[in-house]
Amino acid sequence: MSNVFGELLRVTTFGESHGPLIGAVVDGLPAGLPLDEAAIQADLDRRRPGASELTSPRDEPDRVRIVSGVFEGRTTGAPVALLVANEDVRTADYAAWRDCFRPGHGDWTWWKKYGVRDWRGGGRLSGRETVARVAAGAVARRLLERRGVRVAGQVLALGGVVARDPDLAAAAASPLRCGDPRAERRMAAALRKAREAGDSLGGIVEVRALGVPPGWGEPVFGKLDARLGGALLSLGAVKGVEFGDGFALAVLRGSKANDPLTPRGFASNRAGGVLGGISNGEPLVIRLAVKPTPTLGRPQATVDVRGRARTLRVPGRHDPCVAPRLVAVAEAMTALVLADAALLHDARRRAGPDSRRRSAPRTRPPRPPGAMDGRRSR
Length: 378
Ligand SMILES: Cc1cc2nc3c(=O)[nH]c(=O)nc-3n(C[C@H](O)[C@H](O)[C@H](O)COP(=O)(O)O)c2cc1C
Description:
CATH topology: Chorismate synthase, AroC fold
Low-confidence stretches: 359-378
Bound molecules: flavin mononucleotide
CATH class: Alpha Beta
Shape: globular
Number of domains: 1
Helix content: 25-40%
CATH superfamily: Chorismate synthase AroC
Structural class: alpha+beta
Distance between the termini: 33 Å
Order of helices and strands: EEEHEEEEHHHEEHHEHEHEEEEEEEHH
Strand content: 15-25%
Mean pLDDT: 89
CATH architecture: 4-Layer Sandwich
């Protein structure tokens, strides 16, 4: 399995939906970065189920504990280990359909690949897995903040209702993460209707990164958009990613699709902040297509582990739409990719010809451990 992510900023996540805990180990952080549980907790609270009547009623407090890598409020350079307990676990809810596969979920493909099945809420396939990503992403945000980079997201559409002129700040305060109050009311109504019908809805999530300088990302396989796309598509229920005007560019002429360059910078941002896989200094604008939640309260045709036809109806605790909770998770993955890109950018520059000319003669003693601290890597 692939549970490790990132090149210089490496994240390992672990834990299942109905195991005792979920966790992440973040390695490769510079020493000296200010970090405490409160900063991570704020991001986890924005992802929490039970935070709104329109999300899963699974009521997890999601209290994070830092158990390694931080001393007196600063990273030490050692791996930062983060733990979040699973407290509102109701395995019995899943027992009745432990042999059945959920259409639209990953149960069947996991079974085909591994021949074992954690039927308790989907194990690693559960949206609960994203707790670890949000905790790790909150650490990455601290690194980005020091470089003036901010990552924020919102729900642009839900159940066919589209937000008009949404405001990112308003989205942060809204239960559905939508920055257009009128659209949010219609989204909430659509969600209630879908839930009553035992059905679910899809949506579009947008993530923006502001303050990214020109130069992050690398040709050929390390393109920033390729890394962000891979990271965001690694999230359950995300079925499409576009940058800037994305799919709409496909029907434009080049004369309309290009962002003109002026002495003061780009005159527009249809590219969404990346050209040739390298950030161009404009805001990164990324949109995600989020499919409707697979688990439904209405009957669905499926098969069981012996291949027999069954009808599945799963009562209870699932999100009628994943998009609102996905906002914090998509922000976290974006922050992780950008923080890694920032460290890679610094490392390549240090190793480049300019820095060699400036570097000390070989006879000089090596730098003491810890010299690559937060200040130096900025
Ligand atoms: C934050 C989050 C919460 C989710 N909650 C649910 C849920 O309550 N019920 C469900 O069936 N799927 C849920 N999902 C979606 C499934 O995890 C996902 O659809 C499934 O693993 C299949 O993967 P795929 O859709 O990427 O192919 C959630 C996903 C995320 C990211």
